[in-house]
Amino acid sequence: MAPQINRKSGASVHSQVPQSSDHRRRQSFWEWLLGQFHLRPPDDDEPQDWWFASTAVPLVAAATGPLANVMSIVALVMPWRSHIFFDQKDSLGNPLQVGFSDPRWCIALNATSLASGLLGNAFLLCNFTRIIRYIIALPASIICWTASMALLVAATVALHVFASPIAPNELYSQAYWSAVIAAILYFILSVILIINMLGYILGHYPQYFALTDGQRTLILQTLSFVIWLLIGAVIFSRVIDISFADALYFSDVTILTVGFGDIAPTNAIGRGILFPYAVMGIIMLGLVVGSIHQFAKDLQYDNVIRKHIERKRVATIRRATTLENNRSGPAENGTHTSDSDETAQIGYRPRYSREHPIRSSISSWTQGLVGRSKLMLMKEEKDRFDAMRAIQNETIIFRRTYNLLMSIAIFGIVWTCGAVVFWQLEEDLSYFDALYFGFCSLITVGYGDFTPTTNAAKPFFVVWSLIAVPTMTTLISEMSDTIVAWFKNATDKVADWTVLPQSSKYKAFLQRLPVIYSALERRAEKKRVAQGFPVGDLEPGQQQDDGGESSRRPRPLEDLARDSSPSRQDLAQQLAFAIRRTAKHALASRPKHYSYEEWVEFTRLIRFTDNSPEGVVLDEDEFGVLNWDWIGETSPMLASQTEPEWILDRLCESLIRYVDGQSRRQPSDQDEKPLSITNCDRDVEEPTLKKERDIRFEDD
C-alpha cells in the first residue's frame, strides 16, 4: 500500500507542475493582452495616428447610417413578395405587380431592426455632439447596428426558406432587396466602427471624434438630404400613384439630374410640386457634394501631403548632416577646405532636375559667424532656402498628381464594380452595356435607352448613385486643378504672344538679346529727347512707393551683403511700406511666392525690432516669431498660411514690438511734465504750435 500511495503522490506532484506552468502561461498572456490596451482620456493632447480610423470612419458612418435607415424604411412599408400579372400594365407601362402580406414574424423582425438602426444612428449623433460619452455611445451604436443587421439577415433568410415566392407568377419585391441592402450597410457600419473602437483601445487617439465644424456640418447636411429624399418619396408615391420604392427611385433620379424618363409626373399636381422639390434638392445635393470634396481635400492634405513634405524635409536634413560629418573629417585632420567647398550637395533632388543638384550649407548660419563673410553666410542660407523651395515645388506636383490619380482610381472602382452588379441584376444586359449605362448615369446624361427595370436593380441604383455622383464631382474638380489648369496656362501663354500681346513678354524676350535691346533703348531715348521728356533714372522723390513690381525688384545678393545698416527710423518707414505691399499680395487671387532676396529684406524688417540682449538669439518673444530655419520644423514654407499672410503677421508683430520699444525709451517722468512751456520746449514744439495756430486760430 505504501509504495502505491507514494506513486500516487508522486504522480500528483508531477501533474501539478505542468498545471502551474500552464496557469503561469495563461496569466502572462492576459497580462500581455491587457498591456496592449492604452485608454487615453478625452483631454489628451499627445500625437495621434490611424488618421483614417479616427477621422474618415466617423464621417463615413454618419453619412451612411441614414441611408441604411432609408432602406430599412422601404423594407418595412412595403410587402416583400408580389404577384405579377403579365397581362395587365401599371401606370408606368410595366407588368402589374401586387404585393401580398408578409408573415407577422417577418414584420416584427423588420420593425425591430428599423428601431434598432434608428437608435444606433441616434447614439452616433449624440457622440458627435458630446451629449453621451464616447466610451458609452460608440459601443451602443455598434451593438444596435449589429442587431439590426442580424435581424434583417434572419428575416430575409427565414422568408426565403419558409415562405419564398413561387415563380413565375410571384417574385421578391423592391422591399425585400432593400432589406438585403440595409443589412449589408449595417454590417459595413458595424465593422468600421469596431475599427474605430480598436484604434481607441490600442491608444492611437483619445476617446472622442476629432471633427471640425465643417465636418459636423457635413453630417447635418447629409441627414437633411436623406430626409428630403424620404419626403419626396412620400409625396410622389401619392401624387403619381406609384409604389414607395419607385417614388424614392424617382426622387433620387430627379435630384441627381439624371432624368432617365422611365418614371415621370403624369398630372399637373406632380409637375407643379416638382419645381420647388427639384430646386431645393439640387441645392442640398450641391452643399453635400461640396462639403464631401472639401473634407477629402483636407484629409489628404493633413495626412498625406504634409507627411510627404515632412519625409522629404527629414531626408534632406539627414543627408545634409551626413555630408557635414564627412566634410568635418578632413578639417579635424588639418586638411584645408576652400570657400568653394564650404557648401555641400544636399541629398534631396527633385526628379525633374537631377542634372542641377541643390547645394546647401549644412551648419546653421549662426555657427559660422566667426571667420566668414556676410555674403558667404547669406549664400549658405540661400542654399537652404532653395532646398526647401524645391521640396515645396515638387510637393505641389505630387499633390495634384496624387489627388488626380486617387480620384481616377475611386471613380474607376465605383464605375466598374457598379457595372458588374447591374450586369448580374438586369436581364439581357451585357457588361459593356452596363458600363455604358453606368457612365451615362455618372455624367448625368441619362439618355434613357438603358434604365434599371428589375426589383433588385432599382434599390441598388439609389445607393450606388448617391455614392457615385460625389465621386464624379470630385474627379471633375481635380481635373480642373490639373489638366484644365495646364490647358488654361498653355492657352494664356499663346494668347500673350498672339491675340492679347503684352509688352512685358516681348520686353523680357528682347532683354535676352542685348544688341537688339540696346538699340531699341537708344531709339526710345531719342524719341523722349525729341519730345522734351527727361531721360535717365527718376529722382528719388519721383520713385513709386506703392509696392508695384516694377519699383520693387529684389536687389542682388551681393548688394544686400554690402548694404550698410540703415537707421531705425528708415527701417520703420520701410516697415510701413512693406505691410501695405504684403497686404495687397495677401488679397490677390493667386498666392505669391517671394524670392530669397525679398525674404532677406522682410527678415531685416522683422528682426530689427528685436530687443533681446546682445549675443542672445531668440526664436520668438512675447510678440511673435523672430528666427527660423528654412528646412526646420518652423519654416515659413511649412505654414498653413500663404507667404504674404505669414509675412504680414510677422511684420505686424514687428510693428507692435517697435511701438513698445519706443514707449519704453521715453522718459519715465513724461506724464509729470508741467503744463508751462519753457523756452527750450517752445523751440522744439514751435512748428507744431505754429501749425495749430495757423489752422485753428487764424481768425483770432
Automatic annotation (TrEMBL):
User: Which residue ranges have biased composition labelled Polar residues?
Assistant: 1-20
Q: Where are the transmembrane segments?
A: 50-78, 134-163, 175-198, 218-240, 274-296, 402-423, 429-448, 460-477
Q: Does the keyword Transmembrane helix apply?
A: yes
Cross-referenced InterPro entries, in alphabetical order?
2pore_dom_K_chnl, K_chnl_dom
Q: Which UniProt keywords apply?
A: Ion channel, Ion transport, Membrane, Transmembrane, Transmembrane helix, Transport
Has the keyword Disulfide bond been applied to this entry? no
Q: GO MF annotations for this entry?
A: outward rectifier potassium channel activity; potassium ion leak channel activity
Q: How does it sit in the membrane?
A: Multi-pass membrane protein
Q: Where is the signal peptide?
A: none
Q: What is this protein called?
A: Potassium channel domain-containing protein
Organism per entry: Aspergillus lentulus
What is this organism's lineage?
A: Eukaryota, Fungi, Dikarya, Ascomycota, Pezizomycotina
